[in-house]
Amino acid sequence: MTYFFCILFVLCSLPVSAATVQWMKLDGAVGPVADELLQQSLEDAEQSGAEALVIELDTPGGLLKTTRIMCKRIMSAKVPVVMYVSPSGARAGSAGVFLTLASHVAVMAPGTNIGAAHPVGLGGMGGADSSHVMEDKVTNDAAAFARSLADKYGRNAEWAERAVRESESVTEKEALGLNAIDFVVSSRDSLLILLHGRVVQLESGPDTLNTESASIVETEIGWRLRVLDTLSDPNIAYIFLLLGIYGLFFELYNPGAIIPGVVGAVSILLAVFSLQLLPISWTGLLLILLGVILFLLEIKVASYGVLSIGGVISMALGSLMLFEPFQTGIQVGLELVIPAAIITALFFLFVIGAGLRAQKRKVVTGAEGLVGETGTAFSALEPNGKVLVHGELWNAVASATLPKGAEVKVVAVSNMLLRVEPLTKPQH
Fold first, then answer.
1. Model's pTM, two decimal places?
2. Are residues 385 and 418 in contact, defined by beta-carbon separation less than 8 angstroms?
């Protein structure tokens, strides 16, 4: 009996593992980086036995393809996933609507909004009719997807469809009244208290949350994801694109410089990688490419700046249209576009100005560089003979007979024959 009480005492003395909640922040565009971060957070939550994974969401939108993948991960998760649109001022725009609807528990903080989930196409590349048909197909597919997500967890499917078809956006109070979300809370502590005792339906069965005194474990983002997250910033992608263009231009204007060409090539590759992480507009991208073509033509065609001006305008408009800010909220900032356009204009004005000045500058090399130079008659010019100019002998023809040793001035060069005239008029 004594041994029994000793064992019981030891067991009671063992520390009881406290409940934990995995916490992940999704702040920015929804893309491959966000999907990888979600996958990592789910794995951490499942391995640690966390009560739930809370995703603190603030997104303008992102790629629909990636959004579908993330929704699948959330719905098939082995731990409950709570979507928390926070802090105040945050939004669940476009792709964020689908992620919120797919979550087991949908929560918003005061001063937030959700909606505007109309899918954004990548430009009308197949004609007006085909583009319209394709847009209808994508919209119908997205609307059906939103309805299915809302129905799965008993939320307002009609509003979910309106958010897609009509880009309807509502505040947190309106969303709660529409039954688009489950409740509104203002802080982490309040969220954990409200989640405590809630029963959520996982694919494996019902699960009761025990979060009242749970501790929060933040998802640690490794250096790789931090780099990828930085590259997925639209402003960073735009900067790499500009650096690539400038680097290649410097290499074309100064062949053999090597470093500008290498930097330009690497920057272009990084820009391509960054742009594939973002919902770009083909119209904006084609305008930027048109600007590049106009700049390249300026190298070969003497347009006296007309092509460069057109290139600057095309690049500026393309930069503003590179993304769809009204639908996704993703855009290149004006504070970056305007200086970039000015720097580009100054760069090409400088290059073109230097080219024009070089064209007007007197030739100083080769036979043409001898025009205006002086020399002496190496032999008598009657009127043909030889002259010594810059220490070199040239065949020459004079405008009048000149004696050997007479000072002459070169007035023209034709087929390696110098035409000269006396430097001083002979005295009569």
1. 0.67
2. no
| Fold of the 15-222 domain | 2-enoyl-CoA Hydratase; Chain A, domain 1 (3.90.226)
CA-based angle 409:412:413, to the nearest 5? 115
Q: What is the CATH number of domain 367-422?
A: 2.40.50.140
Residue limits of CATH 3.90.226.10 in the chain: 15-222
CB 109 within 8 A of CB 172: yes
How far lies 359's CA from each of 188, 194, 251, 417, in Å?
A: 70, 77, 21, 24
**Predicted local confidence at residue 286, as pLDDT:** 85
Going from the C-alpha of 317 to that of each of 62, 124, 246, 338, the distances in angstroms are 22, 17, 18, 10
Q: What percent of the chain has pLDDT over 70?
A: 81
Per-residue pLDDT reduced to its tens digit, 283-320: 887 888 888 788 777 766 766 768 878 888 888 888 87
SS (H, E, C) the chain: CHHHHHHHHHHHHCCCCCCEEEEEEEECCECHHHHHHHHHHHHHHHHHCCCEEEEEEEECCECHHHHHHHHHHHHCCCCCEEEEECCCCCEEECHHHHHHHHCCEEEECCCCEEECCCCCCCCCCCCHHHHHHHHHHHHHHHHHHHHHHHHHCCCCHHHHHHHHHCCCEEEHHHHHHCCCCCEECCCHHHHHHHHCCCEEEECCEEEECCCCCCEEEECCCCHHHHHHHHHCCHHHHHHHHHHHHHHHHHHHHCCCCCHHHHHHHHHHHHHHHHHHCCCECHHHHHHHHHHHHHHHHHHHCCCCCHHHHHHHHHHHHHHHCCECHHHHCCCCCHHHHHHHHHHHHHHHHHHHHHHHHHHHCCCCCCHHHHCCCEEEECCCECCEEEEEECCEEEEEEECCCECCCCEEEEEEEECCEEEEEECCCCCC
